Amino acid sequence: MPLSPEQLSACYAQACEIELQAFKPGNVSVYSDGHGMTVADFRISAEVSAAPLCNRAYGLGERIYYAVQATRNAVGCNTNLGILLLCAPLLEAAYCRASGETLRQSLRQVLSSTSINDADWVFKAIVLAAPGGLGSASQQDVNTGASVTLTEAMCLASDKDRIALQYLTGYQDIFDFSLPAYYNAIYKWASKHWAAVAVYIGLLSRFPDSHIERKYGGQHTQWIAHAMLALDAEFANAESPEQFMPLLYRMDGDLKSRGVNPGTTADLTVATVLTALLENIIALN
Question: Which of 28, 68, 185, 240 is at 20 to 30 A from 128, Cα to Cα?
Answer without folding.
Answer: 28
